[in-house]
Amino acid sequence: MKKTALVIMAAGLGSRFGGGIKQLAKLGPSGEIIMDYSIYDALDAGFDKIVFIIRKDIEKDFREIIGNRIEKIAKCEYAFQELDKLPEGYTVPDGRTKPWGTAHALIQVRDIIDCPFAVINADDFYGKEGFKLIHDYLVNEMDEDASVYDMCMAGYIVGNTLSDNGTVNRGVCKMGEGDCLKEINETYDIARFPDGSLVGKDVEGKEVRVDGDAIVSMNMFGFPGRFLDTLIENFPAWLSEHGEEMKSEYLLPQEISKLMQDGKATVRVLKDHDKWFGVTYAEDKEAVQKSLKSLVDAGVYPASLY
């Protein structure tokens, strides 16, 4: 059977969580963090290796809170996303503190990925179904050597991904033929109104309605390992165009969209019916704790994962 890896992006600053390291917040009934559940579900689905993308300044806390524990039950490796990890000839503009984005984060794992892999956010609870869907696609369906990149994505129903404590940003998916993704439209400040309608803003700030059954991307993708080479190859051109901007980000969904538009990639959308939840806002913490406890009480997870 093919080997597979799970890459967890955990280098975010957590600015909307009150400035703390939200990826390391203890939310489960036995002190688990959200990553514990993702790793538990990934290993159960059949993934062989866990790769953490973190920052050097949180490495000590990260290893103490989760890394050292997970290393006892699974093969683990680390990659580090830092502002100064740029191609030769490029420098960080004065005053920039914002990370370079999710595609830049993934570049850092190239030396330790030699198999198909899934990627997720550290602070999102995805549920069991997505890990199983993506693992099985990577192992049984993905053509790693296809001339056009063969990718997959767990697609969540937007209504299952909202926060009761504020608006959310989502990549709303437009579907093509054969359950394949046609495009991702970044939609910002999505809110549910009292009548149940969902309204957000497009990239130009124009108000748009969002169908309650729309499929959205939660940054849960499956890729062939060689896809990382394309991210590396395209990064210098992106930096030449955007590198002097203080808040520009080299984002994974945007790079995937460009490849699809150029006919260089296809993305199979694997519809996931689980409810997503996360700690976008500090006020989400209590709701997440209650949700995890209810899943434990229902027998979906043991009271103590490890």
Please give a structural write-up.
By secondary structure, the chain is of the alpha/beta class. It has a domain at 5-147 and 217-260 and 274-297: Spore Coat Polysaccharide Biosynthesis Protein SpsA, Chain A (Alpha-Beta Complex). 27% of the residues lie in helices and 26% in strands. The chain has seven helices and 13 strands. A hairpin with a 5-residue loop joins strand 8 and strand 9. The model is unreliable at 13-19 (pLDDT under 50).
Brief summary of the model shown:
This protein is α/β, with parallel strands linked by helices and 306 residues long. The chain contains 7 helices and 13 strands. A hairpin with a 5-residue loop joins β7 (168-175) and β8.
What are the SSEs and their pairings?
Blueprint: E1 5-9, H1 34-45, E2 49-54, H2 59-70, E3 75-80, H3 102-107, E4 117-121, E5 124-125, H4 128-140, E6 149-157, E7 168-175, E8 181-192, E9 198-201, E10 207-210, E11 215-223, H5 227-242, H6 252-261, E12 265-272, E13 277-278, H7 284-297
Parallel strand pairs: 1-2, 1-4, 2-3, 6-12
Antiparallel strand pairs: 4-11, 5-13, 6-11, 7-8, 7-11, 8-9, 9-10
Going by CATH, the homologous superfamily of the domain at 5-147 and 217-260 and 274-297 would be: Spore Coat Polysaccharide Biosynthesis Protein SpsA, Chain A
Average pLDDT, to the nearest integer?
A: 91
**How much beta, percentage-wise?**
25-35%
Give the CA-CA distance, first to last residue: 26 Å
Please bin the fraction of helical residues.
25-40%
The CATH architecture designation of the domain at 5-147 and 217-260 and 274-297 is Alpha-Beta Complex
Q: Which descriptor suits the 3D outline? A: globular
